[in-house]
Write a structure and sequence with these properties.
73% helix, 3 strands, Rhopdopsin 7-helix transmembrane proteins, 12 helices, globular, single chain, transducer, mainly alpha, 320 residues, 3% strand
Length: 320
C-alpha cells in the first residue's frame, strides 16, 4: 500500500503514530481537543489585550502577537494531522509539504524572536523603569514587531528553498505527523542537503544569540528582583517573569533536542512525543500560563465573560 502510493503519487507519506484505525481516531480526538483549547485560549488573549484599556501596554502588546503567532503555529500542523487520521490517508502533496515547511519554519523562528523581545521588555521594565516609556514607546514597539515577523518570513524562505532544492532519491516516507525538515533530509542520498545544513547552522547561531540575550536579561532581572525589600513586590515580579521564562525554556529546549538529535529511519515513540512538545504543547499552554499567573489578565477575562465594558482610551500605547 505504501509503496503503491509512493510510486504513483507525486508527494509524501506521513507515517504517524499508529496504523491501527482505533488508535488513529483516538489521536485525532486528542489533537482536536488540544487544537480547540489552543484556539480558544489564544483568541481570548488576543481579544482582551485588544479591547481592555488596562492592557494597552508593551508587555500585553507583545503577548497579543505571541498569541496570534501561537494561533497560526498550531494551525500549520495539527489540522492536517487530524484530517489524515480521520480519513486514514497520510498522503500530502509536494505543494502542501512545501507550504507546511515554509510556515512552520517561519513561525518557529518568529516565536524565538518574539520571546527575545518580550524578555528585553521585562528587563527594561524592571531594571530601567525610569527609561521604560522612552525605550518602549509606540514607534519602537511597532518596528520591533515588524522586524520579528519579517525575520520569520526570511528564515522560512531560506529553509524552504534550501530544503526543496535537494533531490529526493529514497522512498518519500516521512516518519512524522507533519513535513519535518530533519526527516526530509533523510530522503536525500547525496550531498544536496549541505545547503540546508548551512542555513540551519546560520539560524542556530542567531538562535543561540537570542538565547544568550534572554539568559542575560533574566540574570539582570532576578538580581534586581532579589534586591526588592518587599516580599509582595518580589512575588509580583516573579509572577510576571517566571511564566515567560518557563515558556522560553520549554520551547527552546524541546525544539533544540528534537532538531539537534540525529534522526533515525524508524523513530521511536519518544521522538514523536518530542515533536508534540514543541509543536502542540507551547501554543496550548501559553494562554493558560499567562492567564493563571497574572491577576490583571484574570480580571480582564472575568470582565469579558461577565459582559462588562472593556474598551477605553489608551494612555500609553494608543497606536499599538
Amino acid at each position: 500500500m505504501i509503496m503503491t502510493n509512493i510510486t504513483t503519487r507525486n508527494g509524501f507519506l506521513l507515517v504517524g503514530f499508529s496504523d491501527n484505525r482505533e488508535m488513529q481516531m483516538m489521536y485525532a480526538l486528542l489533537f482536536l481537543l488540544l487544537y480547540l483549547l489552543a484556539l480558544v485560549g489564544n483568541l481570548i488573549i488576543i481579544t482582551i489585550t485588544t479591547v481592555d484599556r488596562h492592557l494597552q501596554t508593551p508587555m500585553y502588546y507583545f503577548l497579543k502577537h505571541l498569541s496570534l503567532l501561537d494561533f497560526s503555529f498550531i494551525s500549520v500542523t495539527v489540522p492536517q494531522a487530524i484530517d489524515n487520521s480521520l480519513t486514514d490517508d497520510n498522503y500530502v502533496s509536494h505543494c502542501q509539504c512545501i507550504l507546511q515547511v515554509f510556515f512552520f519554519t517561519s513561525l518557529a523562528w518568529t516565536e524565538v524572536a518574539i520571546l527575545t523581545i518580550m524578555s528585553y521588555d521585562r528587563y527594561a521594565a524592571i531594571c530601567l523603569p525610569l527609561h521604560y516609556e522612552v525605550i518602549m514607546d509606540p514607534r519602537n514597539c511597532k518596528w520591533a514587531v515588524i522586524a520579528v515577523w519579517l525575520s520569520g518570513g526570511i528564515s522560512g524562505i531560506l529553509y524552504t528553498a534550501a530544503t526543496f532544492s535537494i533531490t529526493f532519491y529514497r522512498a518519500k516516507i516521512i516518519h512524522q505527523f507533519f513535513c519535518d525538515v530533519p526527516q526530509l533530509l533523510k530522503l536525500s542520498c547525496s550531498s544536496d542537503y549541505l545547503g540546508v545544513i548551512g542555513v540551519a547552522a546560520f539560524m542556530s547561531v542567531v538562535a543561540l544569540a537570542c538565547f544568550a540575550s534572554i539568559a542575560l536579561s533574566y540574570v539582570h532581572i532576578f538580581s534586581s528582583v532579589l534586591r526588592i525589600p518587599s516580599a509582595a513586590g518580589r512575588s509580583k515580579m516573579f509572577s510576571t517573569c517566571l511564566p515567560h521564562l518557563f515558556v522560553v525554556s520549554f520551547f527552546l529546549s524541546t525544539g533544540m533536542c528534537a532538531y539537534l538529535k540525529p534522526t533515525s529511519d524508524s523513530p521511536s515513540a519518544f521522538d514523536l512525543m518530542m515533536s508534540i512538545f514543541y509543536t502542540v504543547i507551547p501554543p496550548t499552554l501559553n494562554p493558560i500560563i499567562y492567564s493563571l499567573r497574572n491577576e490583571v489578565m484574570k480580571g480582564a477575562l472575568r470582565n469579558l465573560l461577565l459582559g462588562r465594558k472593556l474598551t477605553g482610551k489608551n494612555t500609553f500605547l494608543p497606536c499599538c
